[in-house]
Amino acid sequence: MYKSKFLYIIEKIVNFILNLFALINVQLLFLTLISIDKELISQYTQISIYFLILNIILRVINTGISQKIIVKILPDILFISIGLLVKDSEKVFQFYLLGRQTFYLIRSFALKTYKGAFFDKLSDNPPVLVLFSFFVAIFLGSLMLMLPAATVSGEETSLLGALFTSTSATCVTGLIVYNTGTHFTLFGQLIILFLIQIGGLGIMTISSAFAVMLGQKLSLKRESLIQNVVGESSKIDMISLVRSILIVTIIFEFIGAVILYFTFISQMYSPNRAIYHSVFHSISAFCNAGFSLYQNSFMGFKSNFNINFVITSLIILGGIGFPVMVDIRRTILNKFRISRLYLHSKIVLTCTITLLILGAIAFFISEYNNEMKGFNFLDRLYTSYFQSVTTRTAGFNTIDTANLSKGSILTSTLLMFVGASPGSTGGGVKTTALVVVFVSVLAMFRGNRDVNIFKRKVSEGIIKRVMALVAASITFLTVMIFLLLLIEKFSFEQTVFEAFSAFGTVGLSMGITPLLSSAGKLIIILLMYLGRVGPLTLIFAISASSVKSNFTYIEGKISIG
After folding, report:
1. What are the extents of the domains in the chain?
2. Rounded to whole angstroms, how far apart are CA atoms 387 and 459?
3. In 266-376, which residue ranges form alpha helices assigned H by DSSP?
4. Is 171 exposed, middle or buried (0-12, 13-18, 19+ CB in 10 A)?
5. Which of 526, 531, 291 is closest to 390 using CA atoms?
6. How confident is the model over 516-542, as pLDDT tens digits?
């Protein structure tokens, strides 16, 4: 309840003025149609800060001091402090104010359109909740990366650059417009690493994990949401699954970092630097992110067994999905037999092994006299295997991706589109979707009425969902590639490669990412974002219960072929 109607009206007026400031910030942050003196921008930012302070004071007076209101105004106080105390932080505050007012406008709209609280409506709508969660993480990551402390002295991180980097890290893609190891300070690199970790595990999984650790019971609605995120059936207890996710992640990233340490310490690094490089690349590999502290990724380590073995192993483990790892562990503890694995695990493991072998053979042939010319046989094997693994979703490289042959470009594009497996840290349309499409086509050619795999029937509902997912992904990619071809000056192969890499959250590039125009970068940001959350939300939407009609139309005949 508001204590004074007059003060309530004043608060509304102040909030309206803040909305106007937010609109002006769109011009200042994203557009370059006018040139404004830097001192004038600083004065404008100060005025914005004072209006936000006034808004906070009015909210406290109108509603009184409570734990709820304190939690709400804490972010405002933090960024007001940054705007007043941190030098050259105008853009940080402007971006925060833009995001803040946008959030309040969306919330206001939601409250007027629907009954119930804003976050209750989000909880009732899993697709929107997933989209919103990743959006908030990207927004906060961009804010942190824009802080002067995140960038080395003499360098500047633009808003678009921070937004691109934050999106790439949160969506575990790996495409970069700045060199991670030289442009960002340790603080900035740790922000990127944190975004990679929460993006890889999935924001909803992490929030539920914290709830489990705090002893809270998961609601049926949240359990259902997590099941969709990690791609598991209801046979596995969800609390146990979430705990397993955290334990498995920590164990594999720790083991990977320990083994990598011996490689980096042999490079004459100090122990502290070797530990940091080991931890950073272990997390980046397991989360299939592809971020590296080296300008040329792992091109300098193409002959190193440790790098080739550990990095690819982490990528594969992170890419097969948590449910498969849990299933393998369960099977091993119960006298390991392949036949005891769930159908999902059998499909994932079979498809993964097949793609790795076929991809390695394709790279070995197509790059034999190209990028691998002059390599000895062992280095050719290492490189072919590494590229086959990393192209699916990880984004590391041991050869120059910009000089790939046309055969390798085609191979890479196909592998990037397929991606990793459901419930994993990777992107793409997923291995299970590929297998369902393949066995469906095979069943049609054989004249079989049912689609069967591993002596199990695939339901028509699953087949329809997969077809819808693949069709929607291809359609979206086609539209985005068309726009990129209109905007950018790069070749067809480079543009298509970049788009598939972004949508598949892979992170490999033929060297054009930093050279993209602002519009091109925004398209790539959208591809990374929807590539990470789009397939999930599409599956949610298709899986959601809908009102079924009580009648059917008369069957019609259509000629095909």
Report:
1. 1-113, 114-543
2. 35
3. 271-286, 305-320, 322-333, 343-366
4. buried
5. 291
6. 998 899 999 999 988 887 665 655 555
